[in-house]
Design goal:
The chain is an alpha/beta fold. It folds into 2 domains: 209 residues, Phosphoenolpyruvate-binding domains (TIM Barrel, Alpha-Beta Barrel); 41 residues, no CATH class. It is built from 11 helices and 8 strands. The protein has an 8-stranded parallel sheet with strand order 1-2-3-4-5-6-7-8. It starts with a strand and ends with a helix. The structure holds 3-methyl-2-oxobutanoic acid. 3-methyl-2-oxobutanoic acid binds next to strand 6.
Amino acid sequence: MLTCYDYPTACLQDAAGIDIVFVGDSLGTNILGYSSEVEVTMADMRHHLKAVHRGVTNAYLLVDMPYAADKDAKHAVANANLFLSDGADGVKLEGGIEKVPIVTALTEHGIEVCAHIGHNPQIHGTKAATHGKTFSKAKRLIETASALTDAGAKLIVLEKITEEVSQIITETLNIPTIGIGAGRFCDGQVLVINDVLGIGPPFKHAKRYQNYNDLTFEAIRGYQEEVENGTFPTDANVSHIPADKLVRVQKWMKSGR
Ligand code: KIV
């Protein structure tokens, strides 16, 4: 699973065979220049979901409930239905045991839900601490994961949870776990596409497979330099009027029009 926020990236992820293309609310900090996930609105998410949907044919299309869009069952069902009408296959929501009634309501309305426990940016902010380091916290995570599954969640994201606790959760649940900073033993992994491409700062939990910033900066500077020194455009980049038509235009110009 990978986050995705735009049409061209969606086409590439789908062609590459990514199983779950995910429009995360990390849209806010990664694309829109917001300072936190809390600023992301339903309108922001729907705009980007529709763009991503145009590029996805095979993958499962998952979308995040933005902050407060799932504040109660009524809002959650109404907002999730808007996402389904925009092309989503399922919705993800952040939160612990308090989200059990919401997951139940969505499931009863036939909406597929991905739960998300551990670090929850909408609740804990952007600075992520590791979860599941003490007995009581590990127990709570394991119990919460089971309760969300019993409520009907079809998938669960484990974010910034100790590897051992993530492994126990993965072995306990009968639904797939998707880890981010949660170790090697989850059923799947998710990363923010910006972190994979090398946009923005490096993170311990992620891996850069490309250095987008350097490549993009080089391309921008190359274009700028060539325009300024006259090496772009060349004859290969231009179109011509046929010579006889040009002669007519030149004569017409000379004639005083
Ligand atoms: O919005 C997001 O990018 C996420 C991932 C961290 C899973 O929720």
